[in-house]
Fold this protein.
Amino acid sequence: MKFPSVSFWVYLLVLLLGVFKRRDSIEMDINGIIGETKRSVNFPTKSAIYVWGYNQSGQTGREGKDGHLRIPKQLPPELFGCPAGANARWLDIACGREHTAAVASDGSLFTWGANEFGQLGDGTEEGRKYPKKVKQLETEFVKSVSCGAHCTAAIAEPRQNDGTILSRLWVWGQNQGSNYPRLFCGAFSPNTIIRQVSCGAVHVVALSEDGLLQAWGYNEYGQLGRGFTCEGLQGARVINAYAKFLDETPELVKITQVSCGEYHTAAISEKGEV
Ligand SMILES: *[C@@H]1O[C@H](CO)[C@@H](O)[C@H](O)[C@H]1NC(C)=O
């Protein structure tokens, strides 16, 4: 019997080494992947707010001499009454002309910046250069916030809740009739679930879970969607009356999202056709 040649043994050795190395690298890959997953699972428990830009009224929440911040800066957690290293996550943030509002993951709402129309919701008209919890909403779990030029609107649910009261709308600041957050129904019935709210410069649009829009405020450019323009502050109305200005009845659509510019409004419907 002929012994396998030396080159055969060398070949076998290389082959076995190859297999071991492959197994190593597979294990490493798995560890690597698990490591990644762990990190990405842990990561979202903490988040931070960054601000930059114009700071005339302290809306950046940061100290400085320039009157503006050229580079995005993180707001330290201590500014929100969270000790350093404490878990603080942020759910939503909104900027008005010169004020800022942010929703923390525990459902509390913070505001800071200009307040000449009561847009900070603390009952005063004095601006503030540091964030403070909106006391009036402490019994509520705030889910989202929108800022107009000088007003603010938030969607919240009562913390003490037997499940019967769902997302409601709170408004305050310019043209909203209060320096404190107040519950607002407008043209919707009191138990309408509010899905989204968006503030323009001087108008506000709220979207119900059923896909209906209501709008109030100023309408000098037709931003309330009523089929005409008009001067002065307008009460809330559901956006559907414009139909009478058309030759053909429009398709009924369910709205799923809305956004206001300063003086215009845009919305997304669930389907293009019914
Ligand atoms: C922002 O404005 C506030 C209030 O005027 C001021 O105290 C603060 O130092 C300013 N910060 C910057 C970065 O200019």
Summary: The helical segments are 6-42. Residues 215 and 224 are 5 Å apart (CA to CA). The first strand starts at residue 50 and ends at 54. The first helix runs from residue 6 to 42.
